[in-house]
Amino acid sequence: MAGYIIRRVLYMIPVLFGVLIVVFVLMRLIPGDPIEIFYQSGEIGGSGATSREGGEVSRKAIETLRESYNLDKSPPHQFVLYVWDVVRGDLGTSIAYRRPVVDMIASHWPATFALTMASMAVAITIGVGAGVVSAIKRHTFVDYGAQMFAILGISFPPFFVGLLLILVFAIKWQTDDGVGMLPAVSNGYGKELILPALTLGTAASAILARLTRSSMLDVLSRDYVRTARSKGLRERVVVMGHALRNALIPVVTVIGLEFGGLLAGAVIIEAVFHRQGLGLRLIDAIIDRDYPVVQGLVLLSAVIYAVANLLVDVLYTYIDPRVRLETTGS
Amino acid sequence: MAGDTIVQGETGLEAAAAPKPRSEWTMAWRRLRRNKAALAGLGILIIISLAAIFADVIATEPENHFDIMAAELPPGSEGHPLGTDDIGRDVFSRIVRGSRISLRVGFSAVTISAIVGTLIGLSAGYFGRWVDMVISRIIDVMLAFPGLLLAMTVVAALGSGLNNAMIALGVAGIPFYARVVRSTTLAARELVYVRAARAVGMSDARIMLRHILPNIVSPILIMATLGLGGAILAAAGLSFLGLGAERPSPEWGLELSSSRHLLRSSWWISTFNGLAIAITVLSINLLGDGLREALDPQAGAWSH
Description:
Mean pLDDT of chain A: 83
Largest sheet of chain B: none
Structural class of chain A: mainly alpha
Radius of gyration of chain A: 25 Å
Oligomer: heterodimer
Shape of chain B: elongated
Helix content of chain B: over 70%
């Protein structure tokens, strides 16, 4: 077990290093000098290098800035310096905000994390619930309804679902004093979280519902379920005790992967609700070509994703002792 | 562009059908024909494709025609069945033109992913050894980017814009095809007739294209169909985020994003554009599910 985890972690390192190389190279493909781009587009936050003055002073400030970003060195040299920084836990400094990327992550992380947790709760409740009911009531209207919901859920763009929810709960449905029932702009952790979590959660629940249903149908046709039934156990016990436990095994994988993709999933939702999380920072950084932030956030997401993957595999052995890690390791 | 995937499918189809004429595909078609949901999806998709092809005939107003005097007219207004936007452009006409963009971007992205992914996967599975090792590691790295992040990073490098978004989505889809094709090829390589072909000295390229590819056409076709829906959604998402299409393009995701501040006064602009995306993707998903059941009756996650 310990050996397996160590091997998996060791294997993660070259993959994540590959991610680092890909992101680094892609960011170097951006045409033009990033500092120059900022110089031309406006002010470099807090750096004193106010633009459009031209002249020697700001030129000099820009040269200093370029040096501080190692941009005066060759790309391979920059890469080595970057890797060394990353290893020490330094993800660089944002060009737009002149703030360490690690600091930005620390201050915007809670908004994204809360959104992820809340939407996973929504997704698991609706998704697993609908999937189980659908499988038990197979070929009934309940089943067809759940299947319909699931296919609509994967076909509707999440940003559209979000806007529809805003339209209904924040604009049309108002309290007596003319304020929407639920806020459309969402930075808090109370009822501000409801609409974004519903939006992101519904999209994920559709996938979970489909998977739970097919997994449940598969398990219900197994011999041990037939045995349990022929022993005279009540249907409820058979379904909840024998079938669900086993049917949930593949579902756990998907939950893990969805959770691991939290930042990626939050990007669009945060844009819809102007939620000040990491996803919104990533979009800004891409549009601003603030490459240290893009590098840092993409790397962070890949690390979270890889760790989530690993945890799912480890968790497997606890839920399903039949799985031997050594054989699934490849 | 759209033709490429289909042509690829058909060459494989003929080769596969050579020994026992088309029976497998005929059976699959019969199964598909019994699936009402899949047929409905196919029907809607055909209508949307026709709308895209004849967009200039169907649209009631010329492209980018605006009339500030007719701004924000509600749906059902005379001459504007779906209303007008904030500068008086006909929403219906723009949605019809938008179908052209979404289908083109979706088909192109899927074509890039499917062709490159298939070639890479075939090479890895067929040649094995170091070729497989190098390709598999590259696939691992690409798959380490969760969700849309690889596409977004590529867009960051290329700059935003519809064509760049299309390329980015195409690239981001490659590892999924490569992984499936690789494992199917590994199995197909050991088939008796493949070994026989190698024994009689047939060239590697010929073996791969004539004898192995036909075995993997149906998983590729299923992935490509479901992938088309995903690509259209993702492209609309990138445009919504401001990384794809640029104004005044009638791209659906962009329209949704640029009309959202009007949600309070003119809900119809966002709503109809959103519905256009949803209906298109829904029809493709219905067809894709049906294809999966028809081509792979044992596996289908959704089989009855």
